[in-house]
Design brief:
The structure holds 3 protein chains of 3 kinds.
Chain A lengths: L4 H8 L4 H23 L11 H13 L8 H32 L1 H16 L6 H8 L3 H25 L3 H9 L4 H36 L7 H10 L3 H29 L6 H5 L1
Chain B lengths: L2 H4 L3 H20 L11 H11 L2 H35 L1 H14 L8 H8 L3 H25 L3 H9 L4 H38 L5 H10 L3 H30 L1 H7 L2
Chain C lengths: L9 E9 L5 H4 E10 L4 E5 L6 H9 L6 E6 L2 E2 L7 E4 L11 H5 L1 H5 L4 H14 L15 H13 L5 E5 L7 H17 L3 E6 L2 H7 L2 E6 L4 E7 L11 H13 L2
Parallel strand pairs in C: 3-8, 3-9, 6-7, 7-8
Antiparallel strand pairs in C: 1-2, 1-4, 4-5, 9-10
Classes of the chains: A mainly alpha, B mainly alpha, C alpha/beta.
Chain lengths: 275, 259, 253
């Protein structure tokens, strides 16, 4: 084993071509082993169906759907639509509020305990409350998503405003900019990377909240899919559902990173420099 | 502005907090909504005392915390071990990281149905979810800590004649601790939310169960009580971890980075 | 005060600055500072870290107000920043979301100058500081020295009478620093301005200035004044140069 410094330094270099091969081989080996163990009956299909079974179910669920006619796309659409509504609501309220609170010292001090406490409340624990008030419907899920994303975006926006480099503001003052100008032309652009950061976290939170919320009482949606399938011991569908959820989560995070590069090209590497 | 008076403005923080509670009470008292639907803070506490005897409450809290501790310890043990091994032996690390990175995008909560299929509705399935929730952040941070050690630290140790395995324990591991600590904090706060969610969805004991059950009986006051309780416990444990444990044991790190 | 104060002179009179922090003794940054700045002169304030020179500069800039005393320009008291004074900070502090040329256009844009006008103004300045070809780069794409050049151009965009510079070359490596010193003198000789420069490097001060004020700390005051009577460009190895260095060094406490 290469238990030397080079081990650490190699890991640092990130992935190289030979590493890619190791990854591919490992993946294939794992799947192969999985298939083998399933075929020989060492793993029961109810616990973990074979890869071939998973694959055929994968195709089935895109065409036929589960339960009754609800194709995977309908599930995805339901989940996505809920996320979009809740998330947009959160963004539209958290960003302006965050900008306001971050700009005023006393306001921030007053809001601080409220925010700290509200954040520590596990968003999902509000689900029973939401159901009690609004029933098991779209509204509960959307409000829950909104709650989860709201605090992430709010806190990051506030921090972003608070941490604006005082030199930037001084530059603005040297040019005689009015308070309004300084806010819109200096503070706001300065805060954008941090706001975006909050939005990324908020979206991640939304995603997790909705999956959980959908496991309680919903029929359509990715979370509902895997919950339903469990109740009927369709482990193959559970696995396929999980795969879709994983892919979906991956698309969200990669998509957002790409978006950030496009919208804020000047901010790349800024955070490291600041430290 | 007179900075000395406003420096911490703790009074403003307290004011904000108290106004919130007062506002809550006022809205409830105004009876815009039925007091069953929107109880005020006082009503919540009353209902809680009446409907959830202390013994049961402590049972719920206890079981939730137990699940978290068990899952977290497991996640930490495995996460740190795999993280260190993956960093130290780069080829092996590559192999280990492949399945980890593949499974990472799946949120721990999405594992609940599978966990139940594998481990039933008992404790183990909840512990598994917590395990997953803490494993990933702890592993990631440990690995990152391993690969971002300042190379000069290692070189200095070598010139002082520190041999391979001792190097690992005496130099590399301590240098990784701050990152591990970060992983701990993230993992812990994550775990807490997870256990509540898992209990909401499928459990017969615990805080998550308590509030779900209260919903079935339509006892909104008890739900609110539970929600606030969960939040408070989360805050308290996070504070304990951060202030007491981390800042004491890792004073050397925080002193250097706090200015 | 009397009105023969105009003709571009800047007066610093009995300026004291007390910061409101826990320990009042430590908070007394500068005390009873007095000096005059002549138009078009290159004046440098030299001193150790913490001697109050940056505080003094910030007060002249109008970013801070003195606890006692006053700063007068054209017979009028300085109470806030103004377009007659431009400032270059130690960290260039270019707005990272704007390209180099857009950073320079910041001031003109702020007063509503039309696009074409401010673009050509900014391009002139880009050429002046020797950055032609780099105008569309973002600050993160520029080296430290280049960023400072943009910062200088930005400060000059509103054609201020007085240019204030707070250790602008402090974060650059030695070689770049020397390049920038030559550049700065070239720019200064092209667009004659009054420059008030702050640094802790005596060698830099002697190279650049007409006159040097030595500040000493706790609390900050002017200890001694030196007039550098050497023709430019100055030879850092000449005996006169080293002579000044010895004298000033002796006075830095």
């Amino acid at each position: 084993m290469d238990a030397t410094i080079t081990g650490l330094e190699e890991s640092k270099k990130g992935f190289q071509l030979s590493d890619r091969w190791i990854q591919i081989i490992t993946t294939v080996a794992i799947i192969g082993l999985w298939e083998l163990l399933s075929r020989t009956g060492l793993i029961k299909p109810v616990h973990l169906p074979s890869p071939t079974r998973v694959l055929s179910t994968f195709i089935y669920i895109t065409r036929e759907g589960y339960p009754q006619d609800i194709t995977i796309f309908k599930h995805i659409k339901a989940t996505v639509w809920r996320i979009i509504q809740g998330y947009l609501l959160a963004t539209a309220t958290a960003i302006p509020l965050g900008l306001l609170i971050g700009s005023h010292f006393l306001l921030e001090r007053a809001a601080n305990p409220v925010i700290t406490f509200a954040r520590s409340i596990a968003t999902i624990s509000l689900l029973p409350l939401a159901i009690a008030w609004f029933g098991v419907g779209e509204l509960s899920s959307i409000l829950l998503i909104m709650y989860g994303a709201f605090w992430a975006i709010l806190t990051n926006t506030i921090q972003g405003v608070k941490q604006v480099d005082v030199n930037f503001i001084n530059v603005g003052r040297m040019f005689g900019a009015t308070r309004r100008h300084i806010f819109f032309r200096v503070v706001l652009p300065s805060t954008l990377p941090r706001i975006f950061s909050g939005m990324k976290i908020g979206l991640g939170v939304s995603f997790m909240v909705i999956i959980a919320a959908e496991m309680v009482g919903t029929v359509k949606g990715l979370g509902a899919l895997i919950q339903q399938s469990r109740l009927y011991y369709r482990t193959d569908i559970t696995i396929v559902g999980m795969i879709f959820i994983g892919i979906f989560g991956l698309i969200i995070s990669i998509g957002l990173d790409r978006l950030e590069r496009v919208m804020l090209p000047w901010a790349i590497g800024l955070e490291e420099v600041k430290r | 502005m007179n900075h000395r008076r406003f420096r911490h403005a703790l009074w403003a923080s307290w004011l904000g907090f108290i106004s919130l509670i007062a506002l809550w009470e006022i809205i409830a008292a105004l009876q815009l909504l039925d007091s069953q639907v929107f109880p005020g803070p006082v009503a919540v506490i009353e209902a809680a005392i009446k409907n959830v005897p202390l013994k049961r409450l402590l049972e719920h809290i206890g079981i939730s915390l137990l699940r978290v501790i068990m899952g977290f310890s497991l996640g930490a043990a495995v996460g740190i071990t795999v993280g260190i091994v993956s960093g130290w032996y780069s080829k092996l690390g590559n192999v280990l990281r492949t399945p980890i990175e593949i499974l990472r995008p799946i949120p721990p909560l999405a594992w609940i149905p599978l966990a139940i299929i594998w481990l039933g509705l008992g404790e183990s399935s909840k512990v598994m979810i917590i395990f997953l929730g803490s494993f990933f952040p702890i592993f990631t941070n440990t690995f990152k800590g391993m690969v971002t050690i300042e190379p000069n630290i290692i070189r200095v140790a070598q010139t002082l004649g520190v041999q391979k395995n001792k190097l690992l324990f005496k130099v590399i591991f301590p240098a990784t601790l701050p990152d591990i600590a970060t992983g701990f904090r993230v993992g812990w706060s994550y775990s807490f939310g997870l256990v509540v969610a898992a209990e909401l969805i499928a459990a017969s004991r615990g805080l998550g169960y308590m509030i779900m059950h209260a919903r079935e009986l339509n006892m909104i006051a008890v739900i609110m009580y539970g929600v606030i309780l969960i939040g408070t416990i989360n805050l308290v444990t996070d504070y304990l971890i951060q202030e007491v444990i981390l800042k004491r044991k890792l004073k050397w790190h925080y002193l250097a980075t706090a200015y | 005060m009397t009105s023969d104060d105009s003709k571009g002179k800047l007066f610093v009179r009995h300026v004291t600055k007390q910061f409101d922090i826990e320990n009042p003794e430590q908070g007394l940054a500068i005390k009873d500072v007095n000096f005059t700045v002549q138009p078009n002169e290159f004046l440098t304030i030299v001193g150790r870290s913490g001697c109050g020179k940056s505080t003094m500069l910030n007060i002249i800039a109008g970013l801070l107000n003195p606890t006692e005393g006053e700063v007068l320009i054209h017979g009028k008291r300085v109470t806030k920043p103004g377009l007659d004074r431009g400032m270059v900070f130690q960290t260039a502090s270019l707005f990272p979301w704007l390209r180099a040329i857009e950073n320079i256009e910041f001031g003109p844009r702020n007063i509503g100058m039309p696009k074409d006008e401010r673009r050509s103004l900014a391009m002139d300045l880009i050429k002046l500081v020797g950055l032609e070809g780099f105008e569309n780069k973002y600050p993160r794409e520029l080296s430290g020295g280049m960023q400072q050049r943009v910062a200088i151009a930005r400060a000059m965009a509103m054609d201020p009478e007085i240019l204030l510079m707070d250790e602008p070359f402090g974060s650059l490596d030695q070689l770049t620093r020397e390049d920038m010193q030559r550049e700065l003198l070239r720019i200064w000789e092209t667009r004659k301005k009054t420059v008030i420069f702050v640094t802790h490097s005596i060698l830099e001060a002697i190279y650049l200035s007409d006159r040097i004020l030595v500040f000493c700390p706790h609390p900050g005051t002017v200890r001694k004044e030196f007039i550098i009577d050497l023709p430019r460009p100055r030879q850092k190895s000449s005996t006169e140069y080293m002579g000044y260095y010895e004298e000033i060094y002796a006075n830095i406490s």
